[in-house]
Each structure stands twice: as structure tokens, then as C-alpha cells.
Amino acid sequence: MSDIQLFRYSASGVKELSGKAATIEKELQSLIESRMDTFLGVRFLDSEYSTGKTHRGRIDSLGLDENNCPVIIEYKRHSNENVINQGLFYLDWLLDHKAEFKWLVMEKLGKETAEAIDWSGTRLLCIAADFNKYDEHAVQQINRNISLIRYKLFSDDLLMFELVNAVVENAFSEAATDTLTAAAGKRNTRSHSEQIASASTELATLFEQLKSYVLSLGDEVQYKELKLYGAFRRMRNFVCAGVYPVTDPHIRLWLKLDPEHIQLEEGFSRDVTHIGHWGTGNVELVVRDEHDLMKAKLLIEKAYQEN
Questions:
Q1: What is the pLDDT of residues 258-282, one digit of tens each?
Q2: 0.90 surpassed by pTM
Q3: Identity of the highest mean pLDDT range in 131-135, 138-142, 187-191, 210-214
Q4: How far is residue 91 from each of residues 74, 126, 134, measured CA to CA in Å?
């Protein structure tokens, strides 16, 4: 059960706001779908998506996240509904129907976005008024990308999301690794895992120090290794990192911060709002050594707090 409490305070006193579930779950689904990018960092694609006559199912919501990874969202409408198993069924269906999903993305978001789909981060979000200990235990035992998100309505205009539990699968299958290698060869760019593998001991150690620090910011912080960078997220990304082992070895970070609120330093930080880059975030940092990492930590924590 959630132990989050929300209070409204003023000069006249303090009043606790009681949380509640949606009276009609479809209304909550419609609200989330209408602002999915803001709530979850996911671009909405379709609602009640049919899986065809053979599977005879309907995916509540389909989307594409900020890392171009497919996302299935299922809403738990009843306390006895096994939304996790249902979501896993749809997750496997989606991975068996990549071409169909790609056509959907092409239709909704364009050919360029469809070509950039990253299947390695395909994930399932389960949203419910509450989850029990068995739900949380089941997610930990299943080595799949699954997040449990609890919601509460505190008034007509106050909606809370709480990331209850998340499992991030970072191990690529052999087939997936071959696909990444082939794709990297076509674009003359090595994958993130290949960049780390070819890094010097000093650079690899620096990256591990960075990774350890970001993960220590909170139990809810997750790390996902993607094709070309690693993403650290809570509900959404707040820091992305790429390793550059050749010619001026360094780590490049992209933080979700407003560049106008940052004191930029030449050679260390810059505004990349209108400059193409991997990852998400408009503030880019170049980390070459532990001194740079110490400076970066202050901005990383700021991104963590603001996202």
C-alpha cells in the first residue's frame, strides 16, 4: 500500500488531501493518453490496439518513448486482475510483430522515427491505483523491462504517479547483439557496449564511477543500456551518457536541464538544444577526468531533482 500523504497548507492551517482511484478507469486512460509525453515521456501512438483474430487481444495504450523504444501501457482496472501477465502476453506479441508496429510508427510519427526504433528497450508499464506484494515480487522474478506505476487522484486537478517497482533488462541476446553490430557497421558508428569495451582502463573506470554515483541518487533510478548511449531514468530520462574512447577519450553527458538556467563553461558544458546529439537533454557535458566528474555531479543531481 502507498504511504504517500499530500497536504494543502495556508495561513489558516493545514489540510490533508485524501487520495482516491478513478471512478471510471477509462477516464484515467484517456487523460494519460492525451498528455502521455508529459506524464511518462512517451509519445502516444494508439489506444485499444487490436492484436488480431488469432491473439484476440487489445493493448490499452501503445507508445514510443524518448529513447525510441516501444512501450506497452496496461491499466489495472480491478484488484484481482493480473495485469502483469496480460502485459507480458502483449509484450511477446509485439516483439513477434515488429513490422506491424513499425508501420504504425511510420504512419503516426514519420519514416525517420520508424527507422530509428530501438527494440532493445521495449518495455511494459502497468498503471494501477495500487499493487500488492505479490505483484512487486513477480516483477522482480521476471527478467523483463517492466515498471509498476501507482496513481492517486487528490482532486479534480491533482494527479500523482509513484514508481513502485521497476526491472530493467540490460543483457542483450546474441541475436540482438548481431543486429546492433550490423546496424553499427552500416552507419559507421559503434554501439554503446562496443564503445565501453574498447575504452581504456581509466575511461572505463571513470564511467563506472559515474554510473555508481547516478544510481546512488535514489532506489528508483534505473539504468538502461541502449544502442548508442546509456539512459538513467526515474519515470523518464534525466541523464544520458555516451563513451568516446578514440581521439580525446571522454564521456559525454546529456542532462534534462534548461540551458538558460545553467552557467555554461567552455570546453565542459554547452547548449545543444538546436544541435543534433545522441540521448535526451539539452545540456551537454564533456567529462575527461575525475575533476570534470566532480563538477558534473552537481548538475546531475539538479537534473535528478527537477525530473
A1: 999 999 999 999 999 999 888 899 9
A2: no
A3: 210-214
A4: 11, 12, 20
Q: 3-class DSSP state for residue 121?
A: helix
Angle at 61 between CA 254 and CA 307, to 5 degrees: 30
- Exposed / middle / buried, residue 221 (Cβ in 10 Å: 0-12, 13-18, 19+): middle
CA 157 → CA 17, 71, 152, 154, 274, distances in Å?
Answer: 12, 26, 11, 8, 34
Write the CB contacts of 283 (distance below 8 Å, at least 6 apart in sequence).
254, 255, 256, 257, 258, 259, 262, 269, 270, 271, 272, 299, 303
pLDDT tens-digit map of 162-181 = 888 867 766 544 444 444 44
- Give dist(CA 102, CA 112) in Å, integer: 11
Which residues are CB-contacts of 262 (< 8 A; sequence separation ≥ 6)? 269, 283, 299
Residue 134: CA count within 13 A, CB half-sphere: 7
